[in-house]
Amino acid sequence: MYGLPRRSRAVLMGLILFIIGSTMYLKSENLAATVPPIRSYFPHSGIRLAPGEAQFRADAIREAYVHSWSGYMEYGYPKDELLPMSKRGGNSMSGWGASVIDGIGTAVLMELHDVVEQQLRIISEIDYTQCEHQISLFETTIRYLGGMVSAYDLLTGPYSWFIQSGKGQKNHDLVQSLLRQSVALADALKWSFNTTSGIPMPFFMLSEKRIKSEDINNIAGFGTLVLEWTRLSDLTGDPQYTNLAQRAQEYLLKVENPEIGEPFPGLLGTNVRLNDGKFLDSYGGWGAMGDSYYEYLIKMYAYDPQRFRRYMQRWIQAADSTMTYLTSVPTSAHASKMLFVGEYSHSRAVALRGSHLACFIGGNFLLGGQLLDNMKYNIYGLKLVEGCRATYADTPSGIGPERFGWDPNLVPSSQKSFFEKNGWYYGGEIDYRLRPEVIESYYHAWVVTKDDIYREWAWEAFVAINRTCRTEHGFTSISDVSRADGGRKDDKQESFWFAEVLKYLFLIFNEEGIQAKERIGFVRGKGQKWVFNTEAHPIRIY
Ligand SMILES: *[C@@H]1O[C@H](CO)[C@@H](O)[C@H](O)[C@H]1NC(C)=O
Ligand SMILES: *[C@@H]1O[C@H](CO)[C@@H](O)[C@H](O)[C@H]1NC(C)=O
């Protein structure tokens, strides 16, 4: 799966399942009719953490960062990520040391001064014009460009302690190098937008610089660039970067061939041709290859409501269609509180299956609900959080699987009793890759409700991950969440472990620092200063 967008690795399996026809045909009207009244749902659990507990937990998560970072520096660096079992490095992200760039923002928030200084020095020396590996524009944008502009925003804003800390000019120069390196990276990549349509190529070699307009890209692949490229333009005053990203995005804001590309209002197909910007298919959803396109529609509005109003309108279309056509209530004991969102196939049939990747959706609906001051999205978002929580709470390991389903007609016979009890079943891929999405949604749910139940859930997830994924030199992906011990240790510490999992966990417990000062999460009526990119890098809003 090397090279596929992060949120897209599950897609091949998904496609195969589609083709086998594992789809339950449900009329959309029926689905809508099954949604229970949700107005009544926003109660406080009454759970409150004991004094000092949040600080204790924040410290435990900081310790996990230091443990992971030490392992990476000892065995992984200068490669992209640590392979903690075989004690070496892996280069799955272009080979510029992805964990350093993906990790710096979290280290800044944790105020790990020495680590930040080390990371800044490494970043200042990267040569972004050279790369022997295939480059994914999507991954490079969200991890590297997002990581650098975010660290620049943090270190020139609320975390200017670094510049002020005695080393004066030297540290000032290191922080400035973040912006210089962001420009260098974007300048090295920007030729990839020079296709016939202006939709960039998903993958390319810097050594070849060959435009392939006969390629295809997916909507997450080119619909998840606009925040990072726009921030770079706003920081430098040079509009070329945002112009490139916005031009590509136009094909998603207004679909050229909606009869194929827009099966439900605002919900799109997946793959788009680079030569003319037309959609090739009608399947999709909030999982792999679609996910962060929808995510950024509302986040661009958070970033600048003047410039990105159309994006917000497009998000509302997608959100409303999701509520109308994709909502599904599993037949579980706790069904009155939870919802799942299905995926759609070429025939608009809704398949009752989901993925860990798509579990960011609860948090995204909560962000939309807060920004638009619309309770219906908040309530819906909390129910989605509850659904994804079930996929963690019901497993022996305490961690949710990569894929799951809840179609009563497709329950594997070996899982009949599991399904009877829990209302969902494991869906083919049962590993855990240190992904953040469920915890990310807990974070947003906690910011919106201030109900400590979401902190309890986040802590349970951390304790489970710490128990099953921790190794002597860092943390690893595991093969089987249906076993209490997590099965085999799969030997990869993804860079998003630093960027996302540890950051959302830290922020949900850290009561000082930026959380109090600047409100990284959005609180209605209080003013928002930051928005997370899809890699959890906080970007200062315009
Ligand atoms: C884009 O491609 C055209 C030819 O297709 C070429 O003339 C032009 O110089 C290219 N622009 C950039 C910025 O590479
Ligand atoms: C995490 O695991 C380490 C090593 O087993 C242990 O010392 C530590 O107490 C654990 N932390 C939590 C919060 O469970």
UniProtKB/TrEMBL annotation:
GTP-binding keyword on record: no
Binding site for Ca(2+): 534
InterPro entries xref list: 6hp_glycosidase-like_sf, Glyco_hydro_47, Glycosyl_Hydrolase_47, Seven-hairpin_glycosidases
A cellular component annotation (GO) from this entry: endoplasmic reticulum
Record GO terms (molecular function): calcium ion binding; mannosyl-oligosaccharide 1,2-alpha-mannosidase activity
Keyword Disulfide bond tagged: yes
EC code: 3.2.1.-
GO biological process: one example: ERAD pathway
Active site positions: 139 (proton donor), 291, 402 (proton donor), 437
Cofactors, names only: Ca(2+)
Alphabetical list of Pfam families matching this protein: Glyco_hydro_47
Keywords: Calcium, Disulfide bond, Glycoprotein, Glycosidase, Hydrolase, Metal-binding, Signal
Disulfide bonds: 359-388
UniProt pathway: Protein modification; protein glycosylation
Catalysis: reaction(s): N(4)-(alpha-D-Man-(1->2)-alpha-D-Man-(1->2)-alpha-D-Man-(1->3)-[alpha-D-Man-(1->2)-alpha-D-Man-(1->3)-[alpha-D-Man-(1->2)-alpha-D-Man-(1->6)]-alpha-D-Man-(1->6)]-beta-D-Man-(1->4)-beta-D-GlcNAc-(1->4)-beta-D-GlcNAc)-L-asparaginyl-[protein] (N-glucan mannose isomer 9A1,2,3B1,2,3) + 4 H2O = N(4)-(alpha-D-Man-(1->3)-[alpha-D-Man-(1->3)-[alpha-D-Man-(1->6)]-alpha-D-Man-(1->6)]-beta-D-Man-(1->4)-beta-D-GlcNAc-(1->4)-beta-D-GlcNAc)-L-asparaginyl-[protein] (N-glucan mannose isomer 5A1,2) + 4 beta-D-mannose; N(4)-(alpha-D-Man-(1->2)-alpha-D-Man-(1->2)-alpha-D-Man-(1->3)-[alpha-D-Man-(1->3)-[alpha-D-Man-(1->2)-alpha-D-Man-(1->6)]-alpha-D-Man-(1->6)]-beta-D-Man-(1->4)-beta-D-GlcNAc-(1->4)-beta-D-GlcNAc)-L-asparaginyl-[protein] (N-glucan mannose isomer 8A1,2,3B1,3) + 3 H2O = N(4)-(alpha-D-Man-(1->3)-[alpha-D-Man-(1->3)-[alpha-D-Man-(1->6)]-alpha-D-Man-(1->6)]-beta-D-Man-(1->4)-beta-D-GlcNAc-(1->4)-beta-D-GlcNAc)-L-asparaginyl-[protein] (N-glucan mannose isomer 5A1,2) + 3 beta-D-mannose
Membership in a protein family: Belongs to the glycosyl hydrolase 47 family.
Name under which the protein is recorded: alpha-1,2-Mannosidase
